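SAMPLE LOG
Freezer: B-3
Tube label: C17
Construct: single chain, 799 aa
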Amino acid sequence: MTSPGAGMDLGSDAGDRFADYPERAARAGNAAAPSRLTLLLEAERARWFYWAPVALGAGIAFYFSLPFEPRPQAALLALMFSSALSFAFSGATIATVLTRALLLASTGFALITLRAMVVAAPILAQPTGAVDLKGYIEQIEPRDGPGVRLTLQVREIGNLVESERPGRVRVRVTARRDDFAPGDAVMLRARLAPPGAPVLPGGFDFARHAYFEGLGAVGYGVSRPVLDPDAGPPPLSLRIGAWFQRARAAIGARVDRVLGGESAAISKALLTGERGGISEATNRAYRDSGLFHILSISGLHMAIMGGAVFASVRLLLALFPSIALRYPVKKWAALAAAAGSLGYLAISGTSFATVRSFIMISIMFGAILLNRPAIALRNVALSALVILILFPESLLDVGFQMSFAAVVALVAAYEGVRDHYAGQHARDFGLLMKVVLFFGGIVLSTLVASAAVTPLAIYHFHKTQQYAVLANLVAVPICNIVVMPAALAAFVMMPFGLDAAPLLVMGLGVEAMSETARWVAGLPGAVGVLPAIPTAAFCVLILGGLWLLLWHGRWRFFGLAAIAGGLAMAPLKARPDLLVGRDGQLVALRAPDGHLAALPAPQSKFELTRWLESDGDSRSAADVVGTPGLTCDALGCTGRVNGATIAVSRHPAGIADDCRTADLVILDVPAPVACSRPAAVIDFFATRTAGTHAVYIAGPRQVRTETVAEARGQRPWSPPHPWTAEGQTRNHQETASASDGGPMPLHGSSERRRGHSAQAGYGSRISQFAAPAGLLDGGRKPRPDVEEEDPPNPGGAAD
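STRUCTURE (predicted):
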């Protein structure tokens, strides 16, 4: 009789892995012949664990995809139901795989639901004027430009009661880095706002990121901060954190004395995690060359530091045969390396990326203690599980995604190369071959890592670095051989005042890396730009890559088909024909040449730059403003897209004509009820309450809009805007008729909804809106939620 698995190549060692399957199936009561899928899964049983973080992440992703906040009872019921299913169907292979995956997904869903409840803290409801702000300094970050950014543990914000007062805020202030120290109690006048919403529907949500950091407001100071003499001592946790902050500041000051300029800023980033002093030009050069990963303390730096400690301790102990031959010096070295990595974590700022890297390297050293291979996919999967259990929100962190994508690909490639060269030892190769293998390994690892992170870079940043292999081939050996060992030596010698020499060596290496970054970034076509791709295409690409890397048998090559499908889906994302900014000032229209043309608007550079990146447009914001596509006069601007007329009204005298002739009207004031002809009206209240509007136009009067508010849903980090309820009542007042000399009814009022909109009465009464005084000029002030802009000069009077 032919075996059910005949004709299938399940992998070279498949027979060993499912040879005992018939006995296990018989014990489970499964007398039927196993299916081909069952045999495939049994052959890969040792790799089921690799998929555990994927299933856990699927449940977390489902939580974030919901347009509402799920009840904890729902998460608990899902977990109980999946547990029962997993227990009931624990015999059959396919059922076991499916029910365990469902159980892990339910666990992830429950974990993130619980995490959202635990970190819940007050969020500022709406932007404020200048208010008194008092608090303790948690962190001081230098910026590229004047001033610093302070993260404060809040004591007081104006007259806000405790239930409304955010616990942590971040403000940009005009001060020097040395004026204050972490733990100081300060007070100042500041303009605050809730953490910013996405600038595009489906874009990066800073407010969600801030929510899980406990950050309830951002803003800028309108006065210089001063020490608060009435504040008591800071909390104990803050005093402990302040001690490490002061240690980092002392290290940074030492680096500044020995080095200078960009070399000092980058060295401080690698030593203490403080990246704020790096200029935007240098950041751009590293980013465009594909070397930006070097500037962030991540797995590369933690591995070099931990590996250097491991090798040094093991070498030192090996010098004493009486110790090396009697004791497990390799395990001792692993313990020392883990302790050294912990110290590096404490000094380098405990950012999430650094914590993630520490967890990964600690698990690798733990594997050495347990006599297990340090570099293995099982350790990578275990690291991902630990991180997702402790910080389930990290699934959406770009650094987490790119780090694990690269590590999974590199470890899978390493295991393949290791299996291919099994039985051969490094001593079998000559010196020349070792050099070739060293640089060949850098090229191979860069190619593998670049291929793994490219879908993520395109999805999140809409860019690719074309010469990343060249840049890494030059810079990574400098980082590995010169920069990081010198950094370790500087750490060791700094308490004795002997750190100048290693810091100088480190500075030379940093300068060499920076020159490489600038050279590669300046090459023609160094950066490729691509438009945004659909989320579905991104998910298919990632799933295909995981299928290819995590399985072992030939069926893993089905992942290539999924990758091809994801690539085919990538260009299918519709691009908006019109974009209206979150304050109604910025408007961008798709011109006949297919590119965006924007109207000039204050404080719009950050927003417009993100729009261009999403559109796959390499032009700068300045190049786009005023380009052909819109015809403007003193009253506003008009344009045509797909046969539809677009009107942007900038003066009350032009609203009447725009409402009579346009298919879409955009106003930076509340819309009158009489403006009823257009297929859509986007006014002051629409942008303030719903955020950025993406408009898709199929033809005259065929207008569809997507808003940031619709994409975000009602979540703890995106509460409904206060104006959506009370603002409609307060501001959308109407009179029985527009002809009685009172204010004109506004767009969306109850009279409009009943179909009784008045068509007469524009003329001189068009400017008599029922909006309270001072409401419309709020957009003229600097936006406190746009952190990329420098703080204004605090010399003027505070409002």
